[in-house]
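<context>
A single protein, sequence plus fold
<sample>
Here is the protein in question:
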Amino acid sequence: MNTKSLFETGHGNRALVVFITCLAVMVGAVVTAALIQTDFGRVKVGNRVYPNFNGIPIRAKLLVPAKASPDNRVPGVVYIHGYQNNRETGDAYCIELAKRGFAVLNIDAIGRGNSGIPNNPTDLDFDESYGGLTSLKYLRGLPFVNAASVGMMGHSLGAEMVYAVALADPAVKALVITGFAYTLDASLTRPKNMLMILGKWDEFRKRMTGTRHFEAEWMSSPQTIKAFPVKNPEFGKTYGDFSDGTARRVFVPNTIHIQESHSRPAIAEALEWMKEALHPPNMYWIDPNRQTWQIKEWATLFAMLSCFAALLPLGLMLIRTKFFSPLQGPVSGSYACTGKNYFKFAGINGLLMWLFLPLILVLFAVHIYVVPIDKAFPMMMVNGIVWWFLWINIIGFLFFRRWFRKQAGKSGLTLANLGVSYGEDRFALDTTAIVKTILLAAILFAFSYFSEHILERIFVVDFRFIFPFASDLTPYRALLFLVYFPFLLVGFVLMGIFLHGQLRRPKKKTWFKTFAAWSFTNTFALVAPLILFLMIQYIPLLTTGFIPLVGPGGMFVSFVINLFHIVGVLIIITPISTWFYQITGKIYLGAMVNASLVTWMFVSSQVIAPIPV
């Protein structure tokens, strides 16, 4: 492997070409997402910010047919996403509704996205709808909305919010709840025109419905008997009458919980339901199966990947400059982890990663029974993940230290050989090099953040794929960056020691083959244990309907679902860490860049609210 060639003059132009290509793909993908979101100009999309009744700001995305006006009013729909999400999670439904003649207010529920932070649940003005009530009032007041033809939609906890609002407000003419079930509070006439969508393998179905076998029991349950106007109703059939608000239907797509927000059959059902209940102008109507939201979802993924991929050539070009050139350095030493040792070390790391739920349970026990931590660390879902990530790497480092002492005595291996130390004979840090590493990491992070921030401001599109990944920061969330960053930095430094030190594979003949091979083996070591963990949950669920890992109040289910997001994050950041180790010979630049990126992902997109267990 000859990384010296990367710093030669001839490679300069190649890095610039790759960088420009990444920028072009990023911008092109965002523009594509924006065109889909606006239906190529036929829908106007913009941000709206308004105060909740208790003064907390609510941010929403408003999608309106371009031809809508006070003289040509259209029906309105408020959409509220689920607990661990932001408004863009509802884009699939909202984009398709707006194309078909609805004005859609897609909100960041309070405590999510760019909306304000919720007050104490014991306060008299605490809003249990997390902005739903005020958003409904706001939508009705828009001059181009037919206030007499307004409905609500939501997923999971957002569905619970819109359900509660619609129960209390008979002026809500249509309701679609996904990932949630109506309760005994429902009647033949309240809420009006209600469609329930719950996935066949929804992990929360037992909690939501109170049934042991949802498909066998739900349509004869007390809740259904009270809400439906006929005996023995069936799934997939509409009962009652839209004209008097008694229409009822339950649809069961073949999905798990998170897929309900991105299910083509579920979206088609919701579109037809809102059409029958709210009567959008006929000129807007499109076959409900002609959906384009998937293009936006993939486009935002490509935009995010291109942005982060651009860090590789950008970092290389900056390290070539005179100021940062002292950071250049080959991977030193001849140590390589081969054969059985690779799988042994990766296996030990995998067992540590499987401490995911036990460590989270310990943290919540401390929070509930010893000292509350949510005042200092208000993102409780993030707290669990960061706590797990930090401790498995601390424990892993203790294993590493024991292994290193044996290797040092046996073969003379040094921390410098592993990219950990700047001193050959003992652990030492070079102050100048560390300062320049911090500065370079800050520049690279600033490029990523401001690229997303500027594009989001212009096109109202963030970085996401199924889950929210990264978006612009409010001042409060920017402060949270400073709270969580140190813990993630320690975790990534220790992870770098493991990946690029103890687990470092043999070099290949070229720098590119080495980068590809190391990126794959490093990613495999981190991701494979989590995929196996997910299989323990989902193979029984998808084959028998049994959910092995539930936990108190269903808490484990929420965290296991979050592993899909964590797997995605690890796949994104591991090659970045590998690249910067390869061109600097040290673990620190990659650790700092990744700690910055992951902290941004967490604080910009994760929930600040009590966990509903």
User: Anything to note?
Assistant: Residues 365 and 371 are 9 Å apart (CA to CA). The longest helix spans residues 511-544.
